[in-house]
């Protein structure tokens, strides 16, 4: 009995402290549970949304400056007027269409961009001015990469469509790359290639510039008459060496393709190609190939023999 009484007295002394510890533990567990549940509830109420999510913005179905001058644009049907807003400003420029809308599912325009004001280097956001004056930015899905078609440059400037960090469709205007333009290329029965260029600087010569070293390999005369520069190139004018690739220049300007609307024009545009003929005394076969590359600059090449088989 004495032992039992002593145990009871010890338990009675220790019970308040045990109750305090248990209470503190329950409080800590309750705080942790409520915190976790609160985070989950908050996630359900306000889910994480990417910066470029569409939200309630009108969606672009198609956008392109196909000819280097006119914007073709179609947006999901939304009350209001399609417009451009120069980036960093509140100014609105309505897009005037030269075509009537023919599908009630979309707002669409074909609009001439040549009269847009401002500097050549400019960026415009595509928007809709809704009734009541509210401005809605037009959202676009990620734009395609490695597209086979590109926007051709105009005489002094070029356009491209782009997507901002928040998914807004934008138009970028920038200077066209400098260059002389190939107006015509021809080859005769003696394998002489004749080039006719526009935009070549007065008094300039034709140059073949090595694509690897940047060295001027050959300089040939250009005949300038009434805005057209003409040069003749024979196979002997092109330096020997399998694997040679040289860019064609008029003075300091590269010779470019007019309205370069293809990302890979080499396989789609027919240009002269010369093979050594049967009966030649050459120990190895050779060829001279004129080609456009993706940058729209004219090249002349001497491919390795294996590459021409």
Lay out the secondary structure:
Layout: H1 2-45, E1 60-64, E2 70-76, E3 81-86, E4 93-94, E5 106-112, E6 122-129, E7 135-137, E8 157-163, E9 169-175, E10 180-187, E11 193-198, E12 206-210, E13 216-220, E14 223-225, E15 228-233, E16 244-250, E17 253-256, E18 273-275, E19 287-292, E20 298-302
Parallel strand pairs: 10-17
Antiparallel strand pairs: 1-2, 2-5, 3-4, 3-6, 6-7, 6-9, 8-9, 10-11, 11-15, 12-13, 12-16, 14-15, 16-17, 16-20, 18-19, 19-20
Structure description:
The chain has 309 residues and is of the alpha+beta class. It folds into 3 domains: 1-48; 60-175, Immunoglobulin-like (Sandwich), CATH 2.60.40; 180-308, Immunoglobulin-like. Helices cover 14% and strands 36% of the residues. It is built from 1 helix and 20 strands. The strands form 3 sheets. Strands 10, 11, 12, 13, 14, 15, 16, 17, 18, 19 and 20 form an 11-stranded mixed beta sheet that branches. Strands 3, 4, 6, 7, 8 and 9 form a 6-stranded antiparallel beta sheet that branches. Strand 12 (206-210) and strand 13 (216-220) form a beta hairpin. The longest helix is centred in the first third of the chain and has 44 residues, at 2-45. The radius of gyration is 35 Å and the shape is elongated.
């Amino acid at each position: 009995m004495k032992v039992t009484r002593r145990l009871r007295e010890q338990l009675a002394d220790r019970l308040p402290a045990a109750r305090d510890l248990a209470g503190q533990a329950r409080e800590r567990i309750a705080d942790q549970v409520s915190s976790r549940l609160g985070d989950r509830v908050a996630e359900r109420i306000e889910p994480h949304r990417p910066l470029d999510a569409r939200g309630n913005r009108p969606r672009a179905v198609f956008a392109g400056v196909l000819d280097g001058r006119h914007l073709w644009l179609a947006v999901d049907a939304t009350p209001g007027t399609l417009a451009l807003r120069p980036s960093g400003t509140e100014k609105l420029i309505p897009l005037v269409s030269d075509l009537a809308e023919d599908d009630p599912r979309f707002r669409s325009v074909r609009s001439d961009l040549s009269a847009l004001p401002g500097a050549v280097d400019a960026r415009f956001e595509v928007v809709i001015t809704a009734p009541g004056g509210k401005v809605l930015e037009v959202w676009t899905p990620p734009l395609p990469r490695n597209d086979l078609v590109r926007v051709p440059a105009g005489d002094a400037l070029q356009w491209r469509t782009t997507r901002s960090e928040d998914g807004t469709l934008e138009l970028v205007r920038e200077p066209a790359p400098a260059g002389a333009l190939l107006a015509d290329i021809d080859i005769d029965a003696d394998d002489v290639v004749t080039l006719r260029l526009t935009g070549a600087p007065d008094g300039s010569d034709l140059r073949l510039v090595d694509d690897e070293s940047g060295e001027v390999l050959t300089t040939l005369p250009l005949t300038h008459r009434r805005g057209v520069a003409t040069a003749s190139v024979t196979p002997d004018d092109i330096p020997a060496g399998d694997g040679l690739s040289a860019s064609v220049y008029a003075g300091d300007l590269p010779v470019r393709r007019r309205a370069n609307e293809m990302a890979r024009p080499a396989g789609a545009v027919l240009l002269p190609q010369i093979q050594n003929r049967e009966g030649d005394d050459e120990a190895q076969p050779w060829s001279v190939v004129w080609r456009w590359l993706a940058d729209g600059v004219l090249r002349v090449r001497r491919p390795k023999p294996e590459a021409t088989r």
